[in-house]
Amino acid sequence: MERREPEAADTEAAAPEILGNVPGSFPWGVWHDRHPALVERLLHATPYGPGERQALRDLLAETLDGVIQPLPASARDRELWHGDWDRGHFGKRWTDAPFLWAESYFYRRLREALGYSVPGPWRGIDPFAPMKDAELAGDTVDGELAALDGGSGPGGRSPDELSPDERTDALVLAALWGNRADLGFRITGGEPGAGGAESLVADERPALRELLRAAGERRGRIVLVADNAGRELIPDLLLIDHLLLTGAAAEVALHVKPHPYYVSDATTADVLAGLRRLVAAPGTAGETGRRLWEAMSTGRLAVRAHAFSCAPLTYAAMPGDLRADFGTAALTIFKGDLNYRRLVGDRDWPATIPFAEVTGYFPGPVAALRTLKSDVVTGLGRRVLDTLDAGGAADGAWRTDGSRALVQVRP
Length: 411
What we know:
The chain has helices at residues 11-14, 26-45, 50-65, 78-84, 99-113, 129-136, 139-146, 164-177, 183-187, 205-217, 233-246, 268-279, 283-298, 320-327, 337-344, 355-358, 382-390, and strands spanning 200-203, 221-225, 251-255, 301-304, 331-335, 366-371, 405-410. By secondary structure, it is α/β, with parallel strands linked by helices. It has two domains: 11-113, no CATH class; 129-410, Rossmann fold.
């Protein structure tokens, strides 16, 4: 599907919210391909009873052929969805609502269908746990942890031989490309792979290093807003350990989801699983895990699980307590694709609109580490776009296939 780049002049007029009703578009594919595949995988992974299985299939049918139904009156979070988070989309066709809002509500309804949110035997059972657990226990993670003791740095050098800036860069890139491990992305054929600086469509690592240095001089607190569990969360934890160990951060707040959300989104339980995986490993990985365990015990690493982390809205609509938390941080780092959509707005922005412009509302310094797996992107140079087009990428596949990534900063 050919994509026409909007003009940068009137940005709000040129940047409508992304919907899911355009055949052949990325959101259309999520509704018609990814979600059906996800439903079948969930039903295969856990022996849910007939009621849960039918409720999940009914939800899928509703998203394809029906309108958005409200939450039951008994739902504990009904007031949130039908109050603070209501944007007038109930009663619309699912694909006619903004993609960000509707996709988020789909995962809320999925938890309802599978009994996670209602009294009964399935209450509190993470429907995505079998996929998360299998990934974290796999041989791939063993190899990645073992590599911490080998010559896996730039130029084949061991991590101990890297300069402080090189080690920061290596860990930032590991956390960035770890985002390819998103289980939802892989359900319909996306595969993680090795990535490097050459695949970055925006590379502001020098500015990020400057912010980290400034944070260290201030003995400041750094916030990391996590994305996925398992293989992605491990390099996030390694980066956090590096920030604490080098003094770039006196404290780190790790924001995760208060309950299962998108397929592999990290919760507090997933943080603990990742820490245990590190602690049980030999060598550098085990040492790192033990330092992080101690940091959590003493409060230098604090886990946060704010309800707004699962909101169907952008961070421009964040509540006052969360705004205050971000506003007192020396730096907030957003990980992953969904967090990027929520940070800049899930709109059809001109790709050249400055990242600083669309994040101007944010109450403090902010950075984004993101593998591109959805349409929205900002802050790119015209030359970068021309190069992508010249390489046959005019159809915009580079925005959604996980082959490109970015590091962006607004001081």
